[in-house]
Design brief:
Layout (H helix, E strand, L loop, with lengths): L3 H9 L9 H24 L6 H13 L4 E2 H7 L7 H10 L3 E5 L7 E5 L1 H21 L5 H15 L9
Antiparallel strand pairs: 1-3, 2-3
Helix pairs in contact: 2-6
Amino acid sequence: MERPSVRRLREEIKQNKAFHDRAHAAALALLRTADELRRSLDTLIAPHGVSAEQYNVLRILRGAGEAGLPTLDIAARLLERNPGITRLIDKLEAKQFVARRRCTKDRRQVFCTITPAGASLINELDEPARQANKHMFRGLTGAQADLLIDLLDRVRYPESDPNKD
């Protein structure tokens, strides 16, 4: 018998046939949920003229402090892998949210730092973003949120699951 949540997902995406298996249903549920999260964030940040990827770069650079980070380190820390890190930085620099400087020891390396304008924007968005996340996960208890994090970790790193057969 089909679980109510699986039936709801099928109805939501207007799929008449049953899913191939639980993994298929789980993958689609995760993608649909990620899309909802993304749209919620986009609604919040779009009026400020930044994309979700640019917002992520600004958060990373704020965390890096005054020293900043090399471009490739920023790319490695992005939530969503993006091969166009240089374009992302170009756009943020054009908006005067990010500054770049060449490394004195290795001229090939470029360090990026958040500007006061970029820091001001990201600080302004902190509380609304926190509230949007809270709203999105309002259906979960703290323990359920912890379990979700653990389960998603097992999806990303199945070989490290100590309970796996």
